[in-house]
From TrEMBL:
PANTHER family: GMP REDUCTASE (PTHR43170). Homotetramer. NADP(+) binds at residues 108-131, 216-239. This is GMP reductase. Residues 9-338 form the IMP dehydrogenase/GMP reductase domain. The gene is guaC. It comes from Ferrimonas gelatinilytica. K(+) binds at G181, G183. It comes from the Bacteria. Catalyzes the irreversible NADPH-dependent deamination of GMP to IMP. It functions in the conversion of nucleobase, nucleoside and nucleotide derivatives of G to A nucleotides, and in maintaining the intracellular balance of A and G nucleotides.
């Protein structure tokens, strides 16, 4: 048995230290980024915030709404080829820059992915998602997808350590998905005792991935715009959001009226709700179960997007980053014992 005693941090453990800045207003901040990839062809430019590939978040409706802001959506894997065809047929070419096709690692899922990529060659991003990215079979699957689609951008995870990030990149991933257990409807840490504080996972995996010319996406655990900024400040190239984008018009999830208020179901992809819905087909999707919660209905996602992007822009002005790209370089985190004043909460 071994104990690592250096402190690992979550978003709630830090704040940004403000820095002198010549920026006058948050409107001067450019939160778009351009990336070239370790393996895939071409360059991508956009706002590197991704809607999670959960069936209550990564919907076609969400993809269409977020594309307007140049953001990405990892479209969940439960749409049929016919539904994909109908959706893509109704969009303009630009949508291809803003959607990822999600897949698991089964034979059936590989076949479906192949059909989709062959039918719609403009699709650019593949998101290979498993609960536990430490399995050798997962690494082998990434190499197989890389061999089949040499020019596509492959996002793969989830892992939380530098050495495994390197292994996924060497196996063919361009972008490593980082996060085990921080998700808002995730119970992995409770059920298994496994996890890693998300900010430290981001810092360590980003360092490893960048050393090889790869990128990372910080996936899970963001509860507010400040957390999204902290993920970027820690070195995340992309940030993936579930709960923060749930409960809107564009989100999936059943709606319920209760005492004249509307609530929307939001659930983990390995929760009972998801498993029942998808015929037990996703039972192995996550190492442990997820929760189901009812969120107050939040209207169109537009307002939430403005809040999140406005918050990130504002962080950049506080630390003097004219571009999101500069945020990590301009970041000094201070460790704290308190975040906001909760006297009126
Ligand atoms: P959030 O932004 O809601 O904090 O986290 C979203 C992330 O939680 C997703 O992108 C995914 O990685 C993770 N997640 C989604 N469903 C489940 C689940 O049922 N169990 C676990 N362990 N993680 C989940």
């Amino acid at each position: 048995m071994h104990i690592e005693s250096d402190i690992k941090l979550g978003f709630k453990d830090v704040l940004f230290r403000p820095k002198r800045s010549t920026l006058q207003s948050r409107s001067e901040v450019d939160i778009r980024r351009s990336f070239t990839f370790k393996h895939a062809e071409g360059e991508w430019t956009g706002v590197p915030v991704i809607a999670a590939n959960m069936d209550t978040v990564g919907t076609f409706e969400m993809a269409a709404a977020l594309a307007e802001h140049e953001m990405l959506t990892a479209v969940h894997k439960h749409y049929s080829i016919e539904q994909w065809s109908e959706f893509l047929g109704a969009q303009d070419e630009k949508i291809y820059q803003h959607i990822m096709v999600s897949t698991g690692t089964s034979e059936r899922e590989f076949d479906k992915l192949s059909t989709l990529m062959n039918d719609f060659p403009s699709l650019r991003f593949i998101c290979i998602d498993v609960a536990n990215g430490y399995q050798q079979s997962f690494v082998t699957f990434i190499s197989r997808v890389r061999a089949a689609f040499p020019s596509k951008v492959i996002v793969a995870g989830n892992v939380v350590t530098g050495e495994m990030s390197e292994e996924l990149i060497l196996a063919g991933a361009d972008i490593v998905k980082v996060g085990i257990g921080p998700g808002s409807v995730c119970t992995t840490r409770v059920k298994t005792g496994v996890g890693y504080p998300q900010l430290s996972a981001i810092i360590e995996c980003a360092d490893a991935a960048h050393g090889l010319g790869g990128q990372i996406v910080g996936d899970g655990g963001c509860t507010c715009a400040g957390d999204v900024s902290k993920a970027f400040g820690g070195g995340a190239d992309f940030v993936m959001l579930g709960g923060m984008l749930a409960g809107h018009d564009e989100s999936g999830g059943e709606r319920v009226e209760k005492e004249s208020k509307t609530f929307v179901a939001f659930y983990g992809m390995s929760s009972d709700t998801a498993m029942n819905k998808h015929n037990g087909g996703v039972a192995k999707y996550r190492a442990s179960e997820g929760k189901t919660v009812m969120l107050p209905y939040r209207g169109p996602v537009e307002n939430t997007v403005q809040d999140i992007l406005g918050g990130v822009r504002s962080t950049c002005t506080y630390v003097g980053a004219r571009k999101l790209k500069e945020l990590t370089k301009r970041t000094t985190f201070i460790r704290v014992n308190e975040q906001e004043n909760r006297v009126y909460n």
